[in-house]
Give the backbone structure.
Amino acid sequence: MKKIRFTALLTAMLLCLSSLAACSQSAGQQSSSPSPAGDTVQSEAPADLLAQIRERGEIVIALEGTWAPWGYHDESDTLVGYDVEIAQAIADKLGVKATFAEGEWSGLLAGLDSGRYDIMVNGVDIDEDRKLKYDFSTPYAYNRTAVIVSGDNEDIHSMEDLDGKQTANTLSSTYANVAESYGAEVIGVDDFIQTIELLHSGRIDATLNAEVSYYDYLAQHPEDTIKIACIDPATTQVAIPLRKGEESAALLTAINEALAELAEDGTLTDLSIKYFGTDISKDQ
């Protein structure tokens, strides 16, 4: 009887050990192999920025929000302006929500570089240095740079007269680069209003900005005595910068298609006249 019981017990133990070994081997094999689901998620992740934007349902747009009439806050603190409406129209055509991120000029391009922003719509002029770093959309505006001085200034009549003078602009802006190219010393500021304050206090000789921005400022401040001393003969092209590379290629194509449709249906012209009183969407 004891022998039978011992044999039965030994058989049961062997069966249990065999089962445990099989379970252990199965678990080891399972943990060492990547899950098919993980492979699928990784391989199907959006590889381009446009796909990512459509997947999350929004496009993040960088702008200053303090530069009338390009992008600014009205009396009710609503963000409005030429760039704001163009960016919103592009977002509509992409089928996503436009989310605006406001900041100082110096940080906007850095935010674009780091991926915090998808695009920047802020009256950005195309220049050779920027073209090396960014891909640009087709131009949606054409800009003339004005040299703005106090009403009693008789020292500046041409771009060449900027040599040795002090100007104020946001550093790394096209206006600062133009001033420096003519020999001016540029003081860095955050926005256009600060340059006007420096002009009135006599701390600078001039500031450079878009001609249309000057006229918009005078429309809002008709009592001001500032004036345009001269106009840079070179017309600049305003466009939308994107990070360079294959990641942005599809988004760039989609933005260019949207801008072409907005030009064809007259939206760019209508918005230009609404905010500037003239059509800056064409190179005239």
Notes: Residues 60 and 99 are 5 Å apart (CA to CA). The first helix runs from residue 2 to 32.
